[in-house]
Design the sequence.
């Protein structure tokens, strides 16, 4: 997760806008990641050995869904800066490496994509970083797999199993 | 990858729009889906036992005509962005089926077309996909979510070639 650099959403958030708007699709029961993302996830050494060729340690990610984590005006501002409509499938907080950040789940280049925010210049939403994300659901959610990619499609995914 | 000849193209329809984005290297699934895959019980989360056999995906820009995509977008009343087109060989089913990889309800989704009433693309079904890109593509893991509605279990597949 410490490799989450640059703003992967730049293609969406920057540029002249022809078609833009905000769509909140927060109750879409068909969205796999939104439906199963909430919880605590711990790195799966066995899978990361396969995907990365090495163990990534005991990294943990905790996600809570909270519509109020990002104010409406911030969402509208993001959408207004993009080239396309911004669809949010989930909004909440994500804790990685002991630090918690507001995030939204959207789509970018046909991938489920998490954009998370941190303070810059006194603005709590002044900086954004992002990563591709997938979830492989199991029949029982306790067996779900969280798959975290990079901000661009140029690196392996990291696998996490649900611990809570 | 010679099939990737198209560029982003907007095709207006009565009720929807089809965008062909076949050259988008940022699409995780499209960049690694092509090839043959075998079911992997060991990697399937939760121990669901996949049906043994192989899946195969061959890219072919001509596999699904634009007209069929336009019709589908119109019937679904949605904008359809397509990241890959080709033919899929399925386990236990006859003949390769034309497919389109798209993004549907926020999920990477394979749309598989079948004949209906004489129209070779008259019927379609959707299969949501998750994908774990590995450092070496031979170690990639493809996950197919069972069922078209709700959140079902998923089955893991590993690359054969």
Sequence:
């Amino acid at each position: 997760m410490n490799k989450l650099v640059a703003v992967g959403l730049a293609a969406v958030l920057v540029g002249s806008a022809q078609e833009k708007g905000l769509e909140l699709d927060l109750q879409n029961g068909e969205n796999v990641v939104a439906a199963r993302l909430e919880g605590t996830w711990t790195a799966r050494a066995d899978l990361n050995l396969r995907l990365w060729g090495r163990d990534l340690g005991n990294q943990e990610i905790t996600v809570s869904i909270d519509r109020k984590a990002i104010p409406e005006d911030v969402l509208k501002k993001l959408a207004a800066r993009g080239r396309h409509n911004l669809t949010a499938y989930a909004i909440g907080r994500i804790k990685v490496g002991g630090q918690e950040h507001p995030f939204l789940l959207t789509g970018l280049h046909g991938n489920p994509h998490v954009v998370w925010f941190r303070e810059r210049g006194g603005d709590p939403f002044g900086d954004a970083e992002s990563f591709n994300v997938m979830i492989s659901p199991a029949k029982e959610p306790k067996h779900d797999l969280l798959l975290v990619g990079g901000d661009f499609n140029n690196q392996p995914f990291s696998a996490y199993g649900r611990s809570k | 990858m010679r099939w990737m000849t198209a560029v982003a193209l907007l095709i207006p329809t009565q009720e929807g729009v089809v965008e062909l984005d076949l050259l988008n290297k940022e699409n995780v699934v499209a960049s690694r889906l092509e090839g043959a895959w075998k079911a992997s019980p060991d990697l399937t989360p939760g121990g669901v036992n996949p049906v043994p056999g192989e899946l195969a995906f061959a890219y072919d820009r001509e596999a699904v005509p634009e007209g069929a995509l336009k019709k589908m977008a119109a019937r679904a009343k949605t904008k359809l962005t397509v990241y890959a087109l080709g033919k899929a060989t399925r386990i236990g089913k006859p003949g390769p089926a034309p497919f389109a990889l798209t993004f549907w309800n926020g999920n990477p989704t394979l749309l598989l077309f079948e004949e209906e009433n004489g129209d070779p693309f008259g019927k379609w079904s959707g299969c949501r996909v998750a994908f774990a890109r590995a450092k070496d593509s031979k170690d990639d893991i493809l996950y197919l979510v069972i069922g078209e509605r709700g959140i079902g279990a998923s089955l893991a597949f590993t690359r054969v070639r």
